[in-house]
Amino acid sequence: MITFKQSGSFKQTTSFLQRCLEVFDASWLDEYGKKGVFELSKATPRDTGKTADSWDYHIEHNSNGAKIVWTNSNATDDGQSIAILLQYGHGTNGGGLVIGQDYINPAIKPIFDEMATQSWEMMIKQRGKR
Predict the structure, then answer these.
(1) 85 within 8 A of 75, measured Cβ to Cβ
(2) Where are the domains positioned within the chain?
(3) Which of 34, 53, 55, 94 is the most buried (most CB within 10 A)?
């Protein structure tokens, strides 16, 4: 049997993260939402261009902070997301298979990296103000 024991507390860490959350201004997320829409649209495979033109985003706020949600409104008649079908592939009515093309992850990763860097810089600035 493996057991773990811990002494002390995470009070200072929790306090620091809570202070960061209190001063966190989520308005900068709007910039990244727009960048994501642009990059996703640019990377989306084009036939008619409808899926590429159907990207959007919104920012959701909750007690833990905020997050960006990117959406694509282009769907099949039965409600399946065309963007997801392009990403992961799908079967055809005739029994064939359309192989997916990973275009979402490469398009959005640089934005995630930039957001992580900016978030870290904001936290370090806040730490210096205490």
Answers:
(1) no
(2) 19-122
(3) 55
